[in-house]
Design goal:
Elements (H helix, E strand, L loop, with lengths): L1 E5 L6 E5 L6 E3 L6 E3 L17 H26 L29 H13 L3 H14 L1 H11 L13 H15 L1
Antiparallel strand pairs: 1-2, 3-4
Helix pairs in contact: 2-3, 2-4, 2-5, 4-5
Amino acid sequence: MSIDFHCEYCGRHIKAPDDAGGKRGICPNCKNSVYVPVPREQVEEIPLAPVDDEEERRRQELDRQARAVQEALLHERDAPPEGPRSGAPASGPPPGARAPQPSVHRDPRQLVLDCIRALAQSKLDRVETLISEMRRSGAAARHVVEELSLDDIPPPELSNVPAELYQGFLRTIRHRLA
């Protein structure tokens, strides 16, 4: 008995011996390497592990808890801030709200490194904040970006960022500061 199939490149009908199943062969028409399928009779069914009911219940409970936490966070984020209930002026920010951060002039090099980390982690809101801080620092941040661009390899603080991404992030920051 032989295996009948069609070449994936030229479409020609091919017959191959049974022992060629699961291997690669050459199409006699177009000379491309093609995969010879295994006959259905020879395909073995892979035994599956039985379902562990206790593990399934645990997984469903964890999913339910995760959804509840996510809904609570979304509700908390979308809820309007609670103001004072009486006519008296508020004595401070509402509970849970962050006080505005004072403008602290940070080291431009640290700003650039933090921005690259935020880009690597796709924290775009943080990137926008850091870009704004870098713009306030003026030419110092641009100088740091140019200085870091001279070396193809990221500094030790960014050893987990691939070199290609590192250079791309520096180009992005340079463009955003221009």
